[in-house]
């Protein structure tokens, strides 16, 4: 799966961050829970009430799911957009599984925190749900 994006409120439709841009985000992160409303389990972090989060995007300063979710998933985000990003912690790709006597080709990709997790907050290989709003790009605010 990697990362999926559900738009809550559209942005301005024109201003999109590019790899290397400094973005300003407001976010709340929850652990995925199949039983919880909107699959939002325990909250593990939030910038709400603490102050917006600034980072360079697309250069590996944040988890891969944020880089892809902001820059490219479903066309990427535009200034002011509010979306929910669902980010898997561990993705496996299997090819030729037991077919034609070939061995399985297994590759893994971490979009969240993978097998290291974040001790005390995020379990290993956890799927995460982030409510995010893109509030600024290189100093330009919504």
TrEMBL record:
Segments of this protein annotated with the region Disordered: 1-20
GO MF, one annotated term: peptidyl-prolyl cis-trans isomerase activity
InterPro entries reported in the protein's UniProt record: FKBP-type_PPIase (IPR050689), PPIase_dom_sf (IPR046357), PPIase_FKBP_dom (IPR001179)
Gene Ontology cellular component list: cytoplasm
Domain PPIase FKBP-type: 20-138
Keywords of this entry: Isomerase, Rotamase
EC number(s) given by UniProt: 5.2.1.8
Keyword Isomerase: yes
Catalytic activity: [protein]-peptidylproline (omega=180) = [protein]-peptidylproline (omega=0)
Entry annotated with the keyword Repeat: no
Similarity field: Belongs to the FKBP-type PPIase family. FKBP1 subfamily.
Record's protein name: peptidylprolyl isomerase
The organism of origin for this protein: Friedmanniomyces endolithicus
